Amino acid sequence: MTAPTGNIGRRLLPLLLAGGEEVRVVARDPARLPGEVRGRVEVVTGSHGDAATVERAFAGADAVFWLVPPDASLTPFEAYSGFTRPAARAFAEHGVGHVVGVSALGRGTPLAGRAGLVTASLAMDDLIAGSGVAYRALANPSFFENLLEEAESIRENGVFTDTAAADRPAPMVAVADIAAAAAGLLLDRSWSGAGSVPVLGPQDLSPDDLARIMSRELGRTVRYERQSLEDMRSAMLGYGLNEAFVEGMVEMKRAKDEGLDAGVDREARAGSATGFAQWCAQTLKPAVLAA
Fold this sequence. Notes:
By secondary structure, the protein is α/β, with parallel strands linked by helices. It is built from eleven helices and ten strands. The strands form four sheets. A four-stranded parallel beta sheet has the order 3-4-5-9, with helices on both faces. Helix 2 links the parallel strand 1 and strand 2 (about 40-45).
């Protein structure tokens, strides 16, 4: 299992242990693993983008959970496929049977080839599938948890920002549902071949819908302010991020606003679906109310 201390991984790891799996994790800093699980897993210390690390980690593995933490100092291709290349070789060399990866919606749409980071993520999926493993890409829209970055602005100013049109509905998802979908696939490895599995919340929501629901759940007025792509680009470049990576973010945001994530059949989605109001009450409200 990669990224065991991240937003998805820390929710997935207990599910795998509860399912009776023997789990080996790759972690740069094993001390960040929760104390209650640290003694129950085998730990390989290092980066899962490193060839020597994945050689140790994947030896004897039946299945792998694969998540790439995008490195904004690299180009999108190198951040995804470049990071994944040593693992794809190790999958084949060690005969890993099944891999579940975290990816994005958009495959098969006219926008998929010009969607920046999403395009790079889909290319990573192809690289993994080409290694010969049985592969399932969890095809995700934007996460509810992205709004936690806006908690201070919501608390202080009653405002959150993004680049989408205020009335553009789009799917979103809670990271807990991604973890649950991954656990279902990893605990029941009766599937074969390569494919993607959409993981979606129960309904499409526009920024205006989000503002309305947040206002109700938080008990205060919350409004949406649209940021231009140019302003987003300038702000990210001001942080010193790789110019190609920033352009990949801009292209992804533009594609999403043009409907990249639209039209997914919810009947095909994986597992349960957390509603946005429920997520607001359980997760966003405590973050906004925190001092």
